[in-house]
Design a protein that fits this description.
It is a single chain. The chain is an alpha/beta fold. Helix content is 30%, strand content 17%. The protein has a single domain, classed as Vaccinia Virus protein VP39 (Rossmann fold), CATH 3.40.50.150. α2 packs across α6. Mean pLDDT is 80; it is low at 170-205.
């Protein structure tokens, strides 16, 4: 079973409806702040999604062909501390919504084999912190900036995507070789959406703001899977 952590009540309700409709894998939705989640609360879950929004990472894993019984963690930490949409009011690493320290707290204890994450493209100081923290805990991290139009959307929505692999030695960080060919969107009606000018018709802006573009994330996940398989073939 999956674990979804999302503390916005309306978004959590949407997430539950997607689970009920079997559009994303079954799981438990925890509406607490990640600050209140203890490592023991995650025992028994195969896949854990933090800052889950409306289940974008879970959908992306399915699109990429990631087995639902294969462990993985995902997390898209709040972007408000770094987003240009806050019109200069963001406080960066000093912002109270800079919740990476809470995410790394859980990662350090559970030590998942692989963690996928995402953040706005101008949050490079944040990425430096993530890289330093993960490498200090013997993870290899790879990252790439990928725009939404690489997956066929008609808006940019550039985002940092990263993958962290648990290992027994520290390695220098290098970008993932994530190829981003222009792709057709899958049938968005099956996900309750009809694309229009890059924003699905009838989709609440709050939900959209809390969501990744699953089709883009799936490209990154597929690249990570291919890189891992190639390494194992050596």
């Amino acid at each position: 079973m999956n674990y979804y952590n999302e503390n916005d009540p309306k978004t959590a309700a949407w997430l539950k409806e997607l689970i009920k409709a079997k559009l994303i894998p079954a799981g438990e939705v925890d509406e607490r702040s990640i600050c209140d989640v203890a490592p023991k609360d995650l025992n028994g879950f195969i896949q854990c999604h933090f800052f889950a929004g409306i289940g974008g990472w879970s959908c992306a894993l399915r699109l990429a062909g990631w087995p639902e019984d294969q462990p993985v963690w995902t997390g898209s930490c709040p972007c408000q501390p770094f987003s240009s949409a806050t019109r200069g009011l963001s406080k960066g690493l000093k912002d109270e919504k800079h919740l990476w320290p809470e995410f790394i707290r859980l990662i350090n204890d559970a030590r998942p084999a692989i963690v996928f994450g995402e953040q706005v493209s101008n949050a490079l100081p944040w990425l430096d912190v993530v890289c330093d923290d993960m490498e200090a805990n013997n993870y290899t991290i790879r990252a790439a900036i990928i725009p939404a139009y690489s997956a066929g959307a008609d808006h940019a929505r550039e985002r940092i995507y990263f993958a962290c692999y648990a290992n027994n030695k520290s390695e220098s960080r290098l970008p993932v070789n994530a190829e981003t060919p222009r792709m057709l969107w899958p049938d968005c009606k099956s996900f309750g959406m009809v694309p229009k000018n890059g924003i699905p018709k009838g989709m609440a802006y709050r939900g959209f703001g809390n969501a990744i573009v699953p089709q883009v994330a799936s490209v990154f996940i597929q690249s990570a899977m291919e890189a891992t398989n190639a390494l194992h073939r050596r």
